[in-house]
Amino acid sequence: MMSQTDETPAVAKRRDNNMAESNNQSAETKLSDVHKRIKAAFETFDNAANNTVDVREIGTIIYSLGCFPSQADLHDFIAEVEEDHSGYIHLDRFLPAMTKVLLEHKFPPIPKDLLLQAFEVLDKDNKGYLEPEELTKYMTQEGEPFTQEEMEEMLTGLADHERNVIYYKDVINQLAIDPDM
Amino acid sequence: MGCGVTKSDQFHKHSGKAVTTIRAAVLIQRWYRQYVARTEMRRRYTWHIFQSIEYSGEQAQIKLYNFLGYLMDNFTPSSNERNLISHIFRENDICRDAEWERYFCYKKIEVPEIYSGPHLTFPLTVEQAVGLVEAFRNKKQLHSRYALQLLLETWKLLRMLPNINRISTCHSKEITICGDLHGQLEDLLLIFYKNGMPSLEKPYVFNGDFVDRGKDSIEILLILFAFLLVYPSDVYLNRGNHEDHIVNLRYGFTKEVLTKYKMHGKRILKLLQKIFSWLPLATVIDQKVLVLHGGISDSTDLNLLARLDRHNYISALRPPKKRNQSSASTSMDSDLDEDVWGANRIFQRRASLTFPKPLGARDCFHNRSLQDFSDRIKVNVETELEIRRRRRSAFNAVMKEPETETPTLSFDSVYSDNAKEEWKQILDLLWSDPMAQEGCVPNEVRGGGCYWGPDITEDFLNKHNLQLIIRSHECKQDGYEFCHNRKVLTLFSASNYYDVGSNRGAYVKLGPDLVPYVVQYQASSMIRELTVRQSVGRTERSALKVLREQLFAHKSDLICAFKKFDSENTGVVSLNDWASAVESVMHLDLPWRMLRCQLVTRKTSEGMIDYYDWFNELAIIGPNSDNIDQSLLETLYRHRSTLETIFRIVDTDNSGFITMEDFRQTWKLLSVYLKMEITDEAISDLAVTIDSNQDGSIDIDEFMEAFRLTDKKSRLERGRSMFMGTATDLTKLEGDPNI
């Protein structure tokens, strides 16, 4: 692979043309790329290989595509695409709706610093960490509450093994958000 | 993808701490749920990776075997070449049992004083069986004398059993059913610990795949057989697709036995061949629950299965040979053939292995993989028939027999429709997998058996008046999984199968109500400390490592594919094109676009991938052999499992060494199989490099070691990479000469 310093002018020109061309086509290819990504994620949960998924998996699929919808957002989305309360969602309806979500950045990710601030708000005593009881109280009583199962998993996953507290700064860094999304 | 500046002010603008707190909570909840979802996604595709590589390995194995069988049946290489591989097809069943008992005789084997393992006396008692478990737990090895004796007794017992065991839960007994164990002794010990050992009150069914992959396959067998001998009415064994010497060549059991039993390993393996063929095929509980290893197809017929001679199927991958009824009988493959070939030089084709001109294609359903080289074998049908007719008459002339039955010249002339049907039944039973769609299609992923749908299950259960099928054969993350409206239960008992933390194992208890009660477990204390998230991470790293190796092994083809998307030869491709190219080369049904960010971490400023650079990034060090052609090396690496399997087949005395001449012949075999031209010169260069001490023979293990790639990134390599397909990484026991 030639570096920029030793490629000939001819090759450089060709490369630039290539880029320009691809920029012009970028909308098209981008759309096709988005479609393929959505399909790939959808297919992972399509157990019967018939282009439908259980409605309960939709949240997971949308999240895994890099979006951060609220529970309310999810309910609205599902209402739009579900097949008459059948409990299933077909790819034909999911694909256009999801494409729109991705292209319009409808459910953008939470920036790290905002997340940090959120934890700091909950850490009223400014300890730098949260006790499990504290976090549990907030997660299960406020906002869009966790189920007991979710709460237990979160504590097991995030709590420091020795001290049994949650060092949220470390946690935020460790659970890095996917750079590609 | 930023959401703008305003949100960061939200916390300060709003009055009332309560609102702020709620907002904070919501953000955290949303972020955490997203994280959980991504982890689930990663878990699924990690699974996907392991499974597709595992199954493609099985497919490769079957293809290889079919290919060798095809060579054997369809043309006549020189006797050297033929002898290389014929022995794995030789049935040798003509000898009477008395002769076999002499061959397997253990009586002359002396047990030295310093042997510290268990001593067995027969008939076996339950105390001895329990003692055996304890001994293996303490890493002892059973002396070959006792091992042979135990196996002989097992063989005698198995010969009396029917093809289908029929048992009942009367006397309020709960029956325990276990799935694949795959040589993982720790799991068997855990099951015994949790559930108790087999006894009159505690009957067990073991559903096949006791061996291969794990490192204690022989110990598991010895334990199961010991309990079988002690409690013949309370221990039931079903055959699995790995109870098969051909599969064992590739997946580690053969090597394990030869390593642990250096002197008598070959005999033990031969006896095991017979034992495997005598293992029952299925078990029926209370006439309502069917337990078998793989599954069913739309043609599965329990009555047929109950009637056939199961011991004729030494390997499920090869149909049984019909024996020549003549009294001058020795094995079809050995002496008789030599005479025939000798006498028929006119018709003998001296095809060398590099230019096969076989007589005709098999039309057998199960050899569809032979389509791969069907373009080399288009022969006029009339010519073929003519040739056969001429052969037959020549043969008859030589033998002066009125017998019209010919020796094995091709599959068709010997195997009746009946035999083909029986063979298919067994293959389906041992190799099939359930699928979600209706219908029944051949299982091309594994290369044997079918995929069968819920409608097939329904019809089958109705036809035989059953209510549930319990099968194994597939690894499941929770150790078990129901499908087909809960009419099929998959049960897998080897925990951490793909890697530490990858999955749990399970066993099932069935009482008179026939409602399955599942018990799960996971071996190794390390696991308890890992959360699900952490173990996903570990397993994922493992899977990705394996995947990177596969990608590296296909470097030339991948570069070719990339170039197709890079007509201007800039050395970069878009992310999407990357995924398409990889998809087209690798033939693994994986979500490449989702794996992309794990496999490609460096992108150019325009968001493109520099593919030459990417291969460096894969961070694999290639084998250290400077004077060998790179593409040859790559081929070697990619097909090393196949190569090793062929080596082991060729190594007829199981010494671990093959001669230089055999090495060259092996290469010729491989080059035909891969449809590659490998010049004699290239082979000689390779041979010279490998035989470093120039003594004319090659140590198989050393050779395979030289071509093991190491991953720079992984410092915590556990040394257990089943997906190399070889047993190279099994803990090498220093073979105790006293055993």
From TrEMBL, chain A:
One of its GO terms (cellular component) is organelle. Keywords: Repeat. The keyword Magnesium does not apply. Residues 33-68, 110-145 form the EF-hand domain. GO terms for molecular function: calcium ion binding. Residues 19-29 have a biased composition (Polar residues). InterPro entries: EF-hand-dom_pair (IPR011992), EF_hand_dom (IPR002048). Residues 1-31 are annotated as: Disordered. CDD domains: EFh. SUPFAM superfamilies: EF-hand. This is EF-hand domain-containing protein. It comes from Amphiprion ocellaris (Clown anemonefish). The lineage of its organism: Eukaryota, Metazoa, Chordata, Craniata, Vertebrata.
From TrEMBL, chain B:
It holds the Pfam family EF-hand_7. One of its GO terms (biological process) is negative regulation of MAPK cascade. Its cofactor is Mg(2+); Mn(2+). InterPro entries: Calcineurin-like_PHP (IPR004843), EF-hand-dom_pair (IPR011992), EF_Hand_1_Ca_BS (IPR018247), EF_hand_dom (IPR002048), Metallo-depent_PP-like (IPR029052), PPP_dom (IPR013235), PPP_phosphatase (IPR051134), Ser/Thr-Pase_EF-hand_contain (IPR012008). PROSITE patterns: EF_HAND_1, EF_HAND_2, IQ, SER_THR_PHOSPHATASE. It comes from the Eukaryota. Keywords: Calcium, Hydrolase, Magnesium, Manganese, Metal-binding, Protein phosphatase, Repeat. It catalyses: O-phospho-L-threonyl-[protein] + H2O = L-threonyl-[protein] + phosphate; O-phospho-L-seryl-[protein] + H2O = L-seryl-[protein] + phosphate. Its EC number is 3.1.3.16. GO terms for molecular function: calcium ion binding; Hsp90 protein binding; iron ion binding; manganese ion binding; protein serine/threonine phosphatase activity. Residues 553-588, 638-673, 678-713 form the EF-hand domain. Belongs to the PPP phosphatase family. This is Serine/threonine-protein phosphatase with EF-hands. It comes from Amphiprion ocellaris (Clown anemonefish).
